[in-house]
Amino acid sequence: MDAALFRVLFITAVIQLIGWGTSSLLAIVGVTIAEELRMDVPTVFAGNTVFYCMMGLCSPLLGRSFVRHGARRVMMVGTLVAAPGYLLLAVAQGPFSFFAAWVLIGASGATLLATAAAILIHERAGVQAQRAMGALLLATGLSNSLFWPATAVLADLFGWRITCAIYAALPLVVLLPLLAFALPAQKPVLAPSPLPDASPASPAKPSVTTRSTFLLMMAAIALNGFVTFGFNAVIIELLKVQGVRIDLAVAIGSALGVLQVSARVVDFLGGGRWDGLTTGLWGGTFIAAAPLVVMLGGASLPIIGLFVVVYGLGSGAFTVARNTIPMVFYDQAAYARALSNIALPLNIACGLSPPLFMMLLLGPGPDTLLALATCGAALCLGALLVLRGRRPRPTGLASVTSTG
């Protein structure tokens, strides 16, 4: 890996750490916000729903901008949207201002996080994109491990409002200068190849097989997002319901990031010996098994520890797969549009799951939540198994992307 690519990876990792870390604050201060704003807890966690739905709605609209202007310029705009979002959250007085803040934060996420980072890496890394993406996700997997304790400390010292104000400054003070001055500009691809099955505006009709392959890929990634983002949002409350002390629950939740990174290390060290679909199959299997550990083994501390280990390894591996599975089927120009179109159902699924998981946890109880998660993970795994039989031949990538 040359110095220029390493610099791109480092800057992108910092952006993802701060972006994901700050946006996960409801996992720590959500209950406190609910009490102060006189909102019920599931409604507050619906802030995550607004966040992910806005990301999903904006991402397809940004597809052409990413291709025309490049990821760097789009991400710079995102920093200018994120700052007022967190500032509005800091001064929120009720549901209207609370959700308006998450609209802005979600719109900024579409231009800064996940899809944007993957497109930026794909622009700069070329044929090294899968390995570079693995390296990026090694670092970004620690966002919750770093920001959950930081949010807890800041909220304890200054309150959640000052914490949000501090987070409002980070995009302008840290992220914007990095993008403007530290990340070198690059001329984007101007003539993308068509993506027949990821763009409804494509002039030619794709074959049924090609379209169904895209839909399977989209379904698998969205189902995984539904399960993992739901768990990530409520993991601390889930541990508390299972009898774990609050300080230990925060520590275990923070350790989850380390486990996720461990799985990404294995994928990274693989050095391209397997593709994103293989990573997804292994990660999907672990995620499907994790809820069963608690459902069949009970809620003792060792069983909970085993659940966290299995889930952490699986979700860490699949985080890589979400960005690299499309690389199995699409070339560089089509990849950006594919990822942008997958982002809509993915982010809607990610947005719906946190309040639903919290509602199930506080209502029917953890067993119902775990059963739903198992079903979602099993469906995801089934879609991946079908995709395994549809891998393009070594020369098949060009035929997939030129069909339209």
Automatic annotation (TrEMBL):
Keywords noted in UniProt: Membrane, Transmembrane, Transmembrane helix
SUPFAM superfamilies: MFS general substrate transporter
A Pfam cross-reference name: MFS_1
TM region positions: 43-62, 74-92, 98-121, 133-154, 160-183, 214-236, 248-266, 278-297, 303-321, 342-362, 368-387
Single GO molecular function: transmembrane transporter activity
InterPro entries for the chain: MFS (IPR011701), MFS_trans_sf (IPR036259), Proton-linked_MCT (IPR050327)
PANTHER family: MONOCARBOXYLATE MFS PERMEASE, MONOCARBOXYLATE TRANSPORTER
Protein's UniProt name: MFS transporter
Upper lineage: Bacteria, Pseudomonadati, Pseudomonadota, Alphaproteobacteria, Hyphomicrobiales
